[in-house]
Amino acid sequence: xxxxxxxxxxxxxxxxxxxxxxxxxxxxxxxxxxxxxxxxxxxxxxxxxxxxxxxxxxxxxxxxxxxxxxxxxxxxxxxxxxxxxxxxxxxxxxxxxxxxxxxxxxxxxxxxxxxxxxxxxxxxxxxxxxxxxxxxxxxxxxxxxxxxxxxxxxxxxxxxxxxxxxxxxxxxxxxxxxxxxxxxxxxxxxxxxxxxxxxxxxxxxxxxxxxxxxxxxxxxxxxxxxxxxxxxxxxxxxxxxxxxxxxxxxxxxxxxxxxxxxxxxxxxxxxxxxxxxxxxxxxxxxxxxxxxxxxxxxxxxxxxxxxxxxxxxxxxxxxxxxxxxxxxxxxxxxxxxxxxxxxxxxxxxxxxxxxxxxxxxxxxxxxxxxxxxxxxxxxxxxxxxxxxxxxxxxxxxxxxxxxxxxxxxxxxxxxxxxxxxxxxxxxxxxxxxxxxxxxxxxxxxxxxxxxxxxxxxxxxxxxxxxxxxxxxxxxxxxxxxxxxxxxxxxxxxxxxxxxxxxxxxxxxxxxxxxxxxxxxxxxxxxxxxxxxxxxxxxxxxxxxxxxxxxxxxxxxxxxxxxxxxxxxxxxxxxxxxxxxxxxxxxxxxxxxxxxxxxxxxxxxxxxxxxxxxxxxxxxxxxxxxxxxxxxxxxxxxxxxxxxxxxxxxxxxxxxxxxx
Length: 659
Ligand code: IVH
Known about the structure:
CATH topology of the largest domain: D-amino Acid Aminotransferase, Chain A, domain 1
Bound molecules: 2-(butylsulfanyl)adenosine
């Protein structure tokens, strides 16, 4: 029996190796399952026989109480990013400054989560997540269920390797279909699904998720007499790890760009998602020479793919009502993954947008998404029409209150003109709490809608009487003393906000946050603004006739004036305190261009610059005053030098803030 047991382990291990590493299976899935069942039966009848490397571990079973923290022996670094050819060339020329002759290794950038695997005497003893790079979490119990991770190696060595755990497109689609059938929330993309699976305490769940793993990094190559990254990959493959077969050595930038172009075209044919190409200097002593920053190796970078198009079916068009009463058509889409997130709904803006593109219900449409931008329907694939498509028709009545919609002159949008329409009020309340308006934290859209429907919140001034219902609110399902106290505290502190936040929060048509700032600065308090004549308003720089008219009319409406008086009676500050907009000469009226990788998301820099009166533009020209450069800045930095434009790094930026 023991002989048969060992034999079964050998058969299953060989089958696994042939399937995952050699990509050349010799037995069918059914045969594999049959052998595995036989093995599990033997183990169940003779528990003491079970070996540490038994393939039965793949089915899971181990359940842990909590994730143990582990400290990585060497930090798990992340990669810097480049987004275009110029930036790739920038990366190469920095290498070129240090080293004259070299080659690169190009690899698909697998969209999953990185993992560190530790083997002692050839046996897998620990799997850990990257965590913050220094400290990760022990996920050994789940890692053991991943069939492409060997439980034992082909050599009895002790070694750490690193790679990426991911979920194939196929496994992801199957998982989401099952979840939909069970009424469970769907995963947005394979990366989230993979990350959610390794963070399970019960390894049976991870086992059922069919995860996979590619190995791409050897942290201590010197211990094995290895001199290049490519050799390290071959060495790890020889030990039984799955190394991506599309990895290639390239001799120069031309070959690298060809590789990138090829995979930009063919990435959709891969059975797993990749979000870019990783470029690594091949020679390990060259790598050492080029070195590291605190976060990234300087000898490697990740080229990120640009926005892509996806085709999907437009199932329906539904209408929503915004705070100004504007009625917007929205496309309900067959869910489709685009740049890592699932898209199932998107705005169609207005009637003209739909008609100009001849969008019909039932059409196959191309969806585009660029970075964080809201996805858009770019065009209809008319070749896919079946004749069953339904024409779009703009609705004529408000979907919420039923009143007749009006299309204003010179505008594409239709409006619900009913001042009592619920949808407008709810959207108006949501807007008042939003980050750029009064920044009242803790209110999600749903809470506001519920409070509105329950009668606690009808107009903006009701936020300031919510405290009188504290007891009732605390008894609502999902709320407790702490969350209500937080809400009330946040409301109370909003009273101190500077005037521009109130102006923006009021939701005056055409008045965005920038105009609100201009008005606050100009008029200093709300009464001056209320008294401003149409002429005064029109004379302000950056305020055109349409905006001026809208502001002027807003303050001629009795209900609006009543609201402002109520807010005043609750001590909501109505003066410009300047706390938000410091007049910082380093920023005000200056045009900035941001390039390269910075330590914080780009939007954070944009919002600081704008809050201090500067502008941000995307391309460097004579009009640019300052170029803020991060890591791996490319052609923009070069152009700034040519044009003699001031160049700041993050440190300069911080210094400029402190005036
Ligand atoms: S190398 C020191 N190679 O991308 C080298 N990373 O954005 C560290 N990734 O944290 C990483 N595919 O999770 C490397 N072929 C590949 C990769 C890869 C995916 C991930 C990895 C890393 C992240 C950086």
